[in-house]
Every structure is written in C-alpha cells, then in structure tokens.
Design brief:
Blueprint lengths: L2 H15 L8 H12 L6 H14 L4 H10 L4
Helix pairs in contact: 1-2, 1-4, 2-3
C-alpha cells in the first residue's frame, strides 16, 4: 500500500466516519482507523505525519474536505 493509498483511506474515514465536531483525540481516531482498515504501520515518522494530518483535518468543514478529496483523486 502506498502513502497515497493510506492518505486516501484516512481521508475517506475522516470524511464519512468521524463527526466534524468530534471530541476524540487524534490518536483515538488513528487507532480506530488502523483497526478498521488493518493498516498497522511500523514507520514512526509516517505515523507522526498521519497524526498531524488527522489533527489538521478532523474539524475541517466536510464540504471543503470533500471538494479537496475530489481534487486529490480520493473520490
């Protein structure tokens, strides 16, 4: 699985499974995604970048997020 695929997977998870006003921490969201997707990553640097991505995206307006996901080819 490529990094693109992982970002696509977590973006779609955030978009469709995580409420915009969630109180869940970045780590909690990451763990649920990891367990649902089966993506157990061993590269600590990449895990850190995914956590930063989750932090930046978890409260983003879902319409904006969907539009950006379309531009990125995730949808």
């Amino acid at each position: 699985m490529t990094k693109y695929d992982l970002y696509k997977s977590i973006t779609l998870f955030l978009l469709y499974q995580v409420p915009e006003n969630t109180s869940a921490s970045d780590v909690e969201i990451y763990k649920v995604w990891r367990n649902m997707s089966g993506n157990f990553l061993v590269d600590d640097t990449f895990v850190a970048s995914l956590l930063e991505y989750v932090h930046a995206k978890k409260h983003e307006d879902r319409n904006v997020m969907k539009a950006l996901a379309q531009i990125d080819g995730f949808i």
